[in-house]
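We treat protein structure as text, and this decision shapes the records that our systems exchange. Below, we set out a record of this kind in full and without editing:

***
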Amino acid sequence: MSNELESTFNIVSEPEAPKIEVQTVTATSITQSPLLADFEKARSNIIDTIETGKTAVKELGGYANSAQSADNYAALSSLIKSVSDLSDKLLKVHQTIETIRAFDAKQMVKEEKKTEITFTGSTADLQKNLLALRDQRRKEAVSEDL
């Protein structure tokens, strides 16, 4: 039917305009992945263990002082060293978390700048659009110079 109308009225239908799709790519954040959750869980476990160790040091210190046994003091010394090592591990986990967050922030800034453009149409249409865009930018540059 459309072809009959076109031939009757001597009208040529215009081809479909090319389509341009702009799509912003979003990156998956490391802070949203299970990796950071695991570090947070490890950090929480270390903090709980340090608190338990501090309580045990106080109790074992009192017991070692009252018993005056070399074995009790050796156990107390070992426990103090373990709690101290856990404190060092806690600091390392904290530093690792901060490094991951800083790296993730840098990656997200880089990823936000990426844009994918898909052009659906013929190369002639693309060239025509690009030339029109170039001419428009030249006119804008000239008008700014005045």
Summary: The chain has one domain: 17-145. The two ends are 54 Å apart (CA to CA).
